[in-house]
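Handover notes (outgoing to incoming on-call)

Open items:
1. Pyruvate, phosphate dikinase: sequence verified, structure written out, both below. Nothing else pending on this one.
2. Nothing else urgent.
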Amino acid sequence: MGARWLVFPDTAQSEPNRDLVGGKAWSLWRMRSLGLHVPPAFVVTTEACAEYFATGGLPEGLAQELVHGIGLLETELGRTFGGNERPLLVSVRSGAAVSMPGMMDTILDLGCNDVVEAALAAETGDQGFAAEVHRRFTGFYGRLVLGSTEELEDLPDTAAVRAAIAEDLGQTVPADPWEQLRAAIAAVFESSRSRRALAYRRHYGIQDDLGTAVTVQAMVFGNLDDDSGTGVLFTRNPVDGTREPYGEYLPRGQGEDVVSGRVTPKPLSHLARQWPTVHTELLAAAERLDREGRDAQDIEFTVQRGELFLLQSRPAKRTARAAVRIAVELVDEGVLTPEQALTRVTPDQVRTLLRPEIATGAADTAQVLATGVGASPGVVTGTVVDTPEAAQADPGCVLVRKATSPDDVHGMIAAGAVITEQGGATSHAAVVSRALDTPCVVGCGSGTVARLTGTVVTVDATSGRVYAGAVATSAIDEGSDDDLRLLTEWAQRHSPVRVGEDDVVAPVFDADALAPEELGEQLPEIPSGTKTVRGALFCAPDGVRAALDAGVEVIVAPYRLPVLLAAIDHQRRTA
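Pyruvate, phosphate dikinase structure tokens:
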């Protein structure tokens, strides 16, 4: 059967189009092509998503193609979708061409109903496991597909979840797995235009009509028994960039448990003690993915009855410090050239790295209000608020939550720092904060929201401490950091403009000397023949671009590297 709306990355002989299948499905193809152990899957393409929004419904013919796609999974695994023996359950996951971690929806355990629950119980000999799968699925579907706003995750069983959904919406979760699948795909499409996804794209300059693919993948169960679990592994530390595995593992858990932050997982060393052979296999796969990807990788994995499955691998979101360290180290390893390394670090990341830190001795007498895991370093002083809407109303404040979810992203973008009661270093709050380069402390414990809201605090997300009031800070010197100094040397060789006080060439245009009335919303016009510019305007990317377009030879700026990187980027884009 020819497929217009589906792609099968498992069996593709050549590399699939990433814009068509999304980053998640592309990573499945890559891992399978490397011989790694991946549950089978197929993908509903971004073209189907575009057609969905153009017509207001699932594309014509997609329902029939889904039957074919599920049939291939059934054949490979010897299972039946909705069957009363050896049932097949699937995950339905978003996958845009540009990675947007935590922004769009994922529905796990799809295909479950009363008949399937009984079949799972008979197959595994564990009625409790089967009931938990059914409860989880019903909650996922009720919240993400039907739109319930109730707290469904904490309800004790499927009956209670169903009752809460019925009371909230007057609807029920359908028993027909095919109806579940079609509605879940539509819900994932819709999530690509949610407020949180739109806010993320605006922040990063990603086009709004990008849409998403939908990956339908056979479930593996980290919550099956004591020999099962789930986790996240970074091939390099995403906080400081050191060349060491960094991750967490949750016994008897599913991936959503780790990402949501509702449960604090164990360090990866727990897996090493429990299943040393699985841990060794995981590290070997991670090393290969890091090498093949030529970058630090963020890997999701599940262990089912002692068997390792890889679910995703993507370039890891990282802090500014980690971005700089990894770029330099990849050159040391011979993976990148210095010129390529300069494309891995942005001017904003360097500016972030040059932000203040707690001054020596300043914290010695400060009152510690909370402690947790420093998930994204930095220091911020601000008033604590407890809702994303309050954060938007007070940019630069400190947002505290029990645990963050995709619905908090607009507030996380506005906040100067994020604190959570729950979750670990691979939770939603940690991953999104690293992507935003926002200081973040997670896992501060119950009662943190109530205790901090309304107070002024200083968040030291490097040490994982939250102090009362304002604590004195100091800034680091660009020339004293070995990695920054190396990047600066490389950037000077490739930049189309010189940066610094030493090479000033007349005539000079000084934007800081202009009268306030001469500064409008637009950049001031650079006089013809100007060789050197100075002023804060020319430290920002727009000012750098204007200077280069005017033929300027020298930009005077307090920090050289951000300006050099912006100049190199502009040269590359206009070449």
